[in-house]
Design a protein that fits this description.
By secondary structure, this protein is an alpha/beta fold. It has 10 helices and 21 strands.
């Protein structure tokens, strides 16, 4: 019986349980040479809604009776080209189901991703296999932090071994986004995922956030036994990249900075579009607003953006930020003084993301100042604002370009922090 089972067509994976950012080798074995087969990936994500995701690829079996996804191109499917992890990033949303909860519902922020791979021959499922993808390694502990006015989550070794510490800031979604911090901690870092608005007693909006809050976070992480002394990195995504660059510019304890899908221009606080004459600052220091673009509200553009969003026409955000940058003098004052940063800088942008031009301001400024530190701007063709973690579902933009950019930039982000540590 075992010999018969062994010779049945089947899916073989290198790892059934792995980290989200770890590639999995997928092989189809014991199929008749020249036969057409289909492999499908399905995932159900359950949070406040139930999402069903699916991808597929069709192959012609080689002479050995195998298909190896990392060396063979599908003849058709949800992705093209040779890509061993194409099934993961090419997932398409096939169904959304609204869920109702009688009581307050807490979503596990780091729930594993569960996949089922199906092998179909002649439209019949002949084998299936389960895969689990994790957001953090088993040796990483998660601790909710509510100390010194700080709201965040600390990821560190279970035995609290001291490691290089990195503060991670999310974007305009607010609250604590734990995915990237958890995964980053699994690569040799103690990571503090820090909220700065939109949760508990923190400000409700990105308006007048004091940089003193970031100094409190720095002092707190410096005091932790899980952090090695004299080295702190910082990582910011989107709006959080402004705060990351500003924090590093103001406080010399920061020794390495990564800005992802962000801006080197300090923009106004994020408030609803309105007819108000003025826009509030996003950031302050000692009660004084950090110069920003733009204190003056471009009212006509704000009203136009409201209509664009209602009609789902164009990109109102790009139009809005272009209007905030319409005065060169205001923009020049709002460029973050990145030359004051006491360490290396890595900027990551997609060419299709209009914010890449604002990140480029950092490079332009650094070139005009003498600095002993290294800086680099990675710009990816075809990718937009969704660059981030590799091998995940991308809901926006060019999936293939985003997947490629995410894989490359994620590897280089990890390498960057390790290299900064070695050269410090």
């Amino acid at each position: 019986m075992s010999l018969m089972n062994k010779n049945k067509p089947r899916i073989v994976v290198s790892e059934s349980i792995s980290l989200i950012d770890s590639p999995v080798k997928i092989t189809i074995q014991d199929v008749n040479p020249g036969e057409k087969i289909t492999i499908k990936a399905k995932r159900i994500a359950t949070g406040l809604k139930k999402l069903e995701l699916e991808s597929y690829a069709i192959f012609i079996v080689d002479r050995s009776g195998k298909v190896e996804l990392d060396s063979q191109e599908p003849i058709s499917g949800s992705y093209s080209g040779v890509d061993g992890m194409g099934l993961f990033w090419s997932l398409e949303l096939t169904k959304i189901e609204e869920l109702s909860f009688n009581n307050e519902y807490n979503v596990d922020p780091l729930a594993p991703q569960f996949f089922t791979l199906y092998l179909e021959i002649n439209q019949t499922i002949v084998h299936e296999i389960k895969i689990t993808r994790l957001w953090k390694s088993d040796n990483i502990a998660r601790h909710e932090i509510r100390e010194n006015g700080l709201v965040g989550t600390l990821f560190c070794m279970n035995d609290r071994t001291p490691l290089p510490a990195i503060i991670v800031l999310g974007g305009s979604e607010g609250g604590i986004n734990e995915y990237l911090p958890a995964l980053l901690s699994s690569h040799g870092f103690t990571v503090f995922a820090l909220a700065y608005f939109g949760i508990e007693d923190l400000p409700k909006q990105v308006v007048r956030i004091p940089l003193e809050y970031m100094k409190s976070a720095i002092d707190w992480i410096k005091s932790r036994p899980e952090a090695i002394p004299n080295w702190i990195g910082i990582h910011g995504t989107s709006k959080g990249s402004e705060l990351a660059l500003l924090t590093a510019s103001f406080f010399q304890e920061i020794k390495a900075v990564v800005s992802l899908n962000g801006s080197a221009i300090s923009f106004s606080g994020i408030v609803p579009w309105s007819k108000d004459e003025e826009l509030p600052p996003a950031w302050t220091y000692k009660g004084i607003p950090i110069p920003y673009a733009s204190p003056k509200n471009p009212i006509s553009v704000a009203l136009e953006c409201i209509e664009m969003r209602k009609k789902a026409v164009g990109d109102p955000l790009e139009k809005w930020y272009n209007a905030l940058c319409s005065d060169p003098e205001v923009v020049e004052k709002a460029v973050i003084p990145v030359e004051k940063i006491n360490g290396n800088i890595l900027l990551v942008s997609g060419k299709e993301d209009f914010t890449y031009r604002y990140s480029k301001k950092a490079i332009d400024r650094l070139k005009s100042y003498e600095t002993s530190y290294n800086y680099k701007h990675l710009i990816y063709e075809g990718a937009g604002h969704s660059i981030g973690i590799p091998y995940v579902y991308y809901s926006q933009g060019n999936k293939k370009a985003t997947a490629s950019a995410s894989l490359d930039s994620w590897k280089k982000t990890i390498e960057f922090f390790h290299e900064c540590l070695e050269t410090n």
